[in-house]
Specification:
Order of helices and strands: EEHHEEHEHEE
Radius of gyration: 17 Å
Number of helices: 4
Largest sheet: 5 strands, mixed
Strand order of the largest sheet: 4-3-5-6-7
Oligomer: single chain
Number of strands: 7
Mean pLDDT: 81
Low-confidence stretches: 1-12
Distance between the termini: 14 Å
Helix content: 25-40%
């Protein structure tokens, strides 16, 4: 799935009008890049609700893009779901370097069991700007799916996120 919705990233954050924040003294000043990105990640929470199932690919893509696009390093995130595919918890469980994040299927499985999750959606960002999955991404998806199947947890999707798009491995038949 290629989502052409533009997202805030380090490449395009100076293209818009400045945003302002109010200091504790009541004065307004231009927001820093970090403040804008942090506010965007908080605002992304409105895209998910524990009352609604997360099976709309476009909504899931926008949620993960809002959370992960613009980070200067790779970050793997997981949305743990109940049996009705309603969110239990969002957790960023793997941070890394510019081109790699360490993800351990054992740790993901432990978290799924602790949260009593029936399913999960994984996403990670590509700071390079390309939302194309690598061979390592596809291999990790297979390994994670296999590990989770042993404990009856379904891997619904693995999304690759960039500032300008997302790619769903489930839509490509690779989950």
């Amino acid at each position: 799935m290629n989502n052409s919705t533009a997202a805030l990233s380090y490449d395009n954050m100076n293209d818009a009008r400045p945003l302002y924040v109010r200091s504790t003294s009541g004065r307004y000043r231009p927001a820093t890049d970090d403040q804008v990105l942090a506010a965007g990640r908080v605002a992304a929470e409105s895209l998910i609700s524990t009352a609604n199932a997360m099976f709309t690919p476009d909504r899931v893509a926008k949620f993960f893009q809002s959370k992960l696009a613009g980070l200067g390093h790779e970050c793997a995130a997981f949305l743990y779901l109940d049996t009705q595919l309603k969110p239990i918890r969002y957790i960023e469980q793997g941070t890394g370097t510019l081109s790699h994040a360490s993800i351990y299927p054992r740790e993901i499985a432990k978290t799924a069991l602790r949260l009593n999750a029936a399913a999960l959606i994984m996403a990670h960002n590509h700071p390079s700007g390309l939302a194309e999955p690598s061979a390592a991404d596809i291999s990790l998806t297979r390994q994670l799916k296999q590990a989770l199947s042993l404990i009856d947890v379904r891997l619904v999707d693995h999304m690759v996120v960039s500032a300008t798009g997302t790619t769903s491995l489930a839509e490509r038949g690779q989950v």
